[in-house]
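Problem 12. The chain below contains 181 residues. Write out its predicted structure in token notation.
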Amino acid sequence: ITIPEESRPIKDKYVVIAEHSTANAKHWHYKNGWQTIVNWLNSLGYKVMVISKQGTTLRNIINETGDRSLLTRINQIKHSEFMITIGSGLAWLAWATGKKVVMISGFSDPLCEFKSNCVRVINKSVCNGCFNDIRYEFDRGDWNWCPAFKNTPKQFECTKTITPDMVIDKIEKEIFPFMNN
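Solution.
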């Protein structure tokens, strides 16, 4: 893609987050997981810019949610340190810009998304990868699609069981050592 030469949206170092997608099965369902990550990043001196189209309830962030142009999103991602997201169009946009992406996902197998510049956080010890499982057909009209455990306590266990500590551990081991600080 063509990456425009635009100035940084803010002067501080920041991380972009996109917490929403087109299917609830893709979302990170760990209670207060996103806020825990925001608080941790803030404690390290990072600002956190939320760039999902949908609104957010996160606190202590730069709220850039809403219907923005792709060029705006490219610029926000380009100038960030890295991105934390779920499997979404914005994840692919970050990949296209060459930005490191921390992807929190259990809905799909890792083979389904890009591999370069991707740090995947997945819990393989619970049900996962239903999107790629030939036993199931994805029902895009069912917001709560979870073919193995719908309407049970195990619904969305693929992401409910991904803890903030798991995300932080991946960032500390696979992102921070390679950043130019």
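Discussion. The CA atoms of residues 107 and 129 lie 5 Å apart. Students who got a different answer should revisit the alignment rule from Section 12.3.
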